[in-house]
Specification:
- By secondary structure, the chain is an alpha/beta fold.
- It has six helices and eight strands.
- It has an eight-stranded mixed β-sheet with strand order 1-3-4-5-2-6-7-8, with helices on both faces.
- The chain has a single domain, classed as Rossmann fold (3-Layer(aba) Sandwich), CATH 3.40.50.
- The longest helix is centred in the last third of the chain and has 21 residues.
Length: 206
C-alpha cells in the first residue's frame, strides 16, 4: 500500500534533541472520518506518515457513508497515521499513532496498541454511537484514555455534562472539546490526556 506524507511545513527541529528522553506511545483513536489523521498532522513536529487508501465499493458497503460527516469521503486509513511531538521541558517524546476506526481492522489495531500508555479518543456529536465500539476496544486493551469531541462546523453542540451522559463515561475519564485543525486546541486535549495518565499512574499500587 502507498503511504503519504503531510505537505505541511514542519517546524525545526526535525531530529530528536541530544540527551536522554522518555519515549511514550499514545494512540489517537476514533471511528471513521473523525479527524485522527488531521489531529496527528496538526500536532506533529515532523512530516507525518499516513496509509490512506481509496475506499472501494466493498468498503462503502461495510461503512455507512450516508452519515453526517462521511458524505463525500473517498479515502480511509487502513494501517496507521504516525507523528512525533517533543516536550523538551519534560524530556519526553510522544509518538502518536492513529488507528483504523473499524473493528474489521482489529488484528492490526491490537498490534498498533502494543506498548501504548494511553489513548486520545475522538468523537463527533453527529454520531456519538459510533464511539462506543472504539472505547470498548481501548478498554479491552486496558488503556486509560480521554475523550475529545471534535467540533465540526455542522455538529450540534451539547454541554460536557450532557455529552458525558450520552457517552456513558466514567466520572474519572476526562472529556474535552477541541478543533483538531487548531494546534493549541488539539494540544490542550493531549495535555489533558497526559495529566490523566500521570494521575492514574500515581493511583497504581507500588
Amino acid at each position: 500500500m502507498d503511504s503519504a506524507r503531510s505537505e505541511r511545513t514542519s517546524p525545526s527541529p526535525v531530529y530528536l534533541p541530544e540527551g536522554d528522553q522518555q519515549r511514550l506511545k499514545i494512540l489517537v483513536a476514533g471511528p471513521l472520518g473523525i479527524g485522527k489523521t488531521t489531529a496527528i498532522r496538526t500536532l506533529s513536529e515532523i512530516p507525518t506518515l499516513h496509509t490512506d487508501e481509496v475506499m472501494t465499493d466493498a468498503a462503502a458497503s461495510a461503512d455507512d457513508l450516508t452519515l453526517d460527516g462521511l458524505r463525500g469521503k473517498t479515502t480511509t486509513t487502513v494501517a496507521i497515521d504516525f507523528g512525533r511531538l517533543t516536550v523538551p521541558q519534560a524530556k519526553v517524546v510522544l509518538y502518536l499513532y492513529g488507528t483504523p476506526g473499524q473493528r474489521r481492522f482489529l488484528p492490526l489495531w491490537e498490534d498498533i496498541a502494543d506498548g501504548a500508555i494511553g489513548a486520545l479518543v475522538l468523537a463527533d456529536t453527529r454520531r456519538l454511537d459510533q464511539s462506543f465500539e472504539v472505547m470498548d476496544l481501548v478498554e479491552e486493551r486496558g488503556l486509560d484514555y480521554a475523550v475529545a469531541v471534535n467540533t465540526f462546523p455542522t455538529s450540534p453542540g451539547y454541554s460536557l455534562e450532557t455529552l458525558r451522559s450520552k457517552l456513558d463515561l466514567d466520572e474519572r475519564t476526562p472529556l474535552v472539546t477541541c478543533d483538531v485543525r487548531e494546534k493549541n486546541s488539539t494540544l490542550d486535549a493531549l495535555i489533558v490526556l497526559t495529566a490523566h495518565l500521570i494521575a492514574r499512574a500515581g493511583d497504581e499500587p507500588s
